[in-house]
Structures are given as C-alpha cells and as structure tokens.
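Sample entry (209 residues):
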Amino acid sequence: SLDATNVDGSNRTAHPLYRLSGTHVRVAMTYNNMHATDPFDYTVKTAGAIDYTQGVTTSLGPKMVYKADAAGKLHKFQRYHYVLRVTLLATGTLGKIDAFTLLTNLAVAVGLLGVAVTVVDTACEFLVSNFDDMKYDNRNDWMTLEALKTFAVEEGILDRFSEETGMALLQTDVMKAIKARAEAKREASDEVAMMKASLGEGGGGGGDS
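Predicted structure, serialized as tokens:
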C-alpha cells in the first residue's frame, strides 16, 4: 500500500534513497560586451556552461492527499512530489564607454590629487621649519648647474664631448657669451703673463749691468 512506502528506504537494490534520487541541472550563461582585443566592439557574446548533480532531493514540498480504501474510508497521506530541478543563472558585464562619465571621473581624480597635495603641504608647514625653501626655492640647484655648464664650456669639455660622440653642440646666445668671456679671460691671462715675463727679463738684465 502507499502508506507502507518508506521514503528513506531504497527504491531498488543498490539505488539511492527515494528522497535522494533527484537530479539538479544548472545552466549558467555569462554575457559580456567588453572585449580586450577590440574595445569599440559592443557585440554581446555569451559563454554557457551546463552541469548537473545526481542524488539530491528535488521535492517541491509536502502535499496532503486523501485516498479512500475499498470500504470507502478516507486515509490521509503526506506526499512529496519529486521533479527535475533546473536552475538558470545569468551573469556578466554589459557596458559602453561614455565620454561624460570618463571626464567626470578624471575631474574627480584631479580634484582628489589637489586635495591630497594641500593636506600634505599644510601638515609639512607645521612639521618642517624651512618647508617653503625646500619645496619652492631651487636657487642652489640652478646655480650648481650654471656653474658646471660654465666650467664645461670654458674648459672645452663640451666641445671635446661633442667631437667624441659626433653630436653637434647647440650654439645658443648663452653658450656664445660664455665662450666670449672665457676667451677674454684667457687673453687677459696671456697679457698678464707676458708682462710679468717682460718685467722679469728687464729686471734681470739691469742687475747684470
């Protein structure tokens, strides 16, 4: 009889229990219109996957039914309807490049960077005594570079390096002025040396006479 059926018993030899004899089928669909190889291709493409699990309960829940026996007496039964369970899962990413959104995000990023710089500078004003000089005053670096450039031009280091590398030296007005001053210094030094030499010779001759 129906009331004698044990749902926790095996429906057949070497088969699972009645309540664990269902099958669960899962269908997963992934939608995407963003393609790395072609960023302006918005064609929606789908990748699907299907898998299943056997030996699970797929009951829709209990249902009370009444059956009459041969004598006409009603009997109440609690039945569990088992079906094939199918789960549909749709996921993915769909989007499109929007110029307004892009510019808005860039503006927000620039604003956040400005706020960060302001916060850091304000904190450093209280923590570092000469913060303004260290951040904004670059006169020492400028003077160092100018001194090195002047020395390289006056000593002919840049000219020799230009010849060795085969690169043409850019003759700017500043470079020409430095070379002119260096040439004037050399000429003045040569004149002073010649005067000293002539005075030395004249002084030595007078002593001999």
